[in-house]
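Retro notes
What went well: the complex prediction finally ran end to end.
Inputs used:
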Amino acid sequence: MKKYIPILKRTQMFAGVGEKDIATMLSCLGARVYTYKKGEYVLRQGEHINDITVLVEGSLHIQKDDYWGNRSILGQISVGEMFGEAYVAPESGALLNDVVAVEDSAVMFFDVRRIITTCSNACRFHSAVVQNLFFAISEKNRKLVQKLGHMSKRSTREKLISYLSEEAKRQGSAAFVIPFNRQQLADFLSVDRSAMSNELCKMRKEGLLEFDRNKFRLL
Amino acid sequence: MKKYIPILKRTQMFAGVGEKDIATMLSCLGARVYTYKKGEYVLRQGEHINDITVLVEGSLHIQKDDYWGNRSILGQISVGEMFGEAYVAPESGALLNDVVAVEDSAVMFFDVRRIITTCSNACRFHSAVVQNLFFAISEKNRKLVQKLGHMSKRSTREKLISYLSEEAKRQGSAAFVIPFNRQQLADFLSVDRSAMSNELCKMRKEGLLEFDRNKFRLL
DNA sequence: ACAAAGATGTTGTTTTTACAACAAAAAAGA
DNA sequence: TCTTTTTTGTTGTAAAAACAACATCTTTGT
């Protein structure tokens, strides 16, 4: 568990907390680490959790498969990001999605009740973590609204432009890398892969952008 | 402002706090009330806010219009619900959407910093409100994920089924009322109104559901 | 190095949606 | 009540997306 402390230090949840203090807090917050092989499920739709989790190694997808086998990727989690925050409320019910490791991953679980209930121990930074978490959930909220913005676009081309230009902005460069292959990007934007591939190539011919695999450049 | 205290008492934000304590907290939290006529903008895309707000009268839509005049309704706010919670983090940036009054409305604004910074006054329930807010934002998060679930459906029919069946479940009855007219529902699900209207009528012919204006019944 | 598996691009066909235009019904206002 | 405005339903056409099938290029594992 200790080896992940430098990673935790860089997360939004532990912003402003030193490594020693994080080490102290781990037991206070009921932290546990589990590892997953590529393709394994971290959480499944319908399960109940009482934890907020932070990805400390690898990469995850939050996704859902319907009756007909259509997969929707709701989001992608990189190292340092958290998930499960939508289910901290006492009456929040079962998970709406699956969480799957897209590469070998490690996830740290924190007991929600022990985060929210300020402990009587010497957790000097406990309240800072609660505030950090508060902001982090709010931030996540904003990202979801942003994704809804992409999804609400009517055509495949508009969805692509919406997503790619936001990604360029976020990464601060017209040239950037996306965390999806074609099928995953199609699942993320809820469109057909071949139609999307076709549209991307059309846009390239029109001189709107360049790309190679998952490297893109907007022109 | 006082007349809204009974309404605040029933909100998630002030759950478990008595009316007298709410009255005391209003000044402590920097509360202000503004009123809006039907059709007026409460907030506009691109603005910056440092407030969490609660709707105390009327009804609001969170929406966005693009270059081509297509409107997307991201969400609907009823009395007692809050909005703006996605922008509480210090670095959250400008609003991504417009907030519009769909009927004459009143909104209460609370200064975020005064909520988060526990005051030194006699606000016994301040920390309870922070915790309530924490859960409320998390809950909101879950709703956004749920809406993403509807939006990620490929066809108009699937989107309708996804939305209507969730609404039936939420209202605890196969017969329920939705807070949208046809055009608004189409904007909410990001589909064409006439195509959607057509699809609804087909579904009625097939015996899947009944409806009259905004009253629906699943069969 | 080679075979196998996976990812990407391409094309033609079918299905669905968007768009436009208008009729009918309901609601709002004078 | 009567008129006007808004909302809803209906239809035909044009555009777009989904689907299916396959060629090509990459990556992975042996």
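What we learned: Residues 154-155, 181-183, 193-194, 197-198, 200-201, 213 of chain B lie near DNA strand D (CB under 10 Å from a C1').
What to try next: split runs per interface for comparison.
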